[in-house]
Amino acid sequence: MAKGGNNPLAQFEIKELVPIQIGDINIAFTNSAAFMLFAVFSISAFLIFSMRRSTLVPGRWQSMAELSYEFVANLLRETVGNEGRKYFPFVFSLFMFILFGNMIGMIPYSFTFTSHIAVTFAMAVAVFLGVTFIGLAKHGLHFFSFFVPPGVSVVLWPLMIPIEIISYLSRPVSLGVRLFANLTAGHTMLKVFAGFVVSLGVLGGILPLAFVVALTGLEVLIAFLQAYVFTILTCFYINDAIHLH
């Protein structure tokens, strides 16, 4: 959580670290971009360090790296099948980026870039466009049969097809908002209860402190679960693009 006085929303404030202006476009390097780079560096360091001296009997770091690999590989295998193996690098990178972003945000005075709708929606749109391209590349115009529910009478097509299209187009919205909303709500609650601990003093702050400890444990769990949910939904979308119905 970022430092922000008594305002629980101040921790989400975007701050310019390196002002960059090209014409009327502001592309400044911000604290959000800095923590994204930090997440990428942390992931790279974790994987390189863990597998630098791989052994038949893995140590703790190697075990963590292999568990992460197997976790995502199993998700793809169970949801997409063998055809999903080629998409493993993208799905694995997505999972690790979101997971590390969520976990880094749990460090006091850090910044949670996954709590910003601009970031989560951008990732969701990238997934949406990617799976749509996969579907079109694999099936051509037959891809649009995805919007015709199997077994539905032709008479109901005028009703069902628009519903299916709206449902499909809403995917990036639901995918991005789910991650953003959960992280924002959780960090705001932590900041509020932390403020109670400070304002109520040593004795009065015991109960809020207990809530902070409990919420911190819950937020760590949510940080993993939200990375998992985003990843498994991406796997489902890939499966839909490859196998249609």
How would you sum up this structure, described in words?
It is a single chain. The protein is built from seven helices and four strands. The protein is mainly α and 245 residues long. It has one domain. A two-stranded antiparallel sheet has the order 1-4. A two-stranded antiparallel sheet has the order 2-3.
Q: How big a fraction of the residues is strand? A: under 5%
Please give the radius of gyration in angstroms: 21 Å
Biggest sheet statistics: 2 strands, antiparallel
Total count of strands: 4
**Share of residues in helices:** 55-70%
**Class based on secondary structure composition and strand pairing:** mainly alpha
Order of helices and strands: EEEEHHHHHHH
Number of domains: 1
List keywords for this structure.
245 residues, mainly alpha, two-stranded antiparallel sheet, 7 helices, 4 strands, globular
Task: Summarize the SSE layout with pairings.
Elements: E1 16-18, E2 21-22, E3 25-26, E4 29-30, H1 31-51, H2 60-79, H3 88-104, H4 117-139, H5 157-169, H6 171-204, H7 206-243
Antiparallel strand pairs: 1-4, 2-3
Write a compact overview of the structure shown.
The protein is mostly helical.
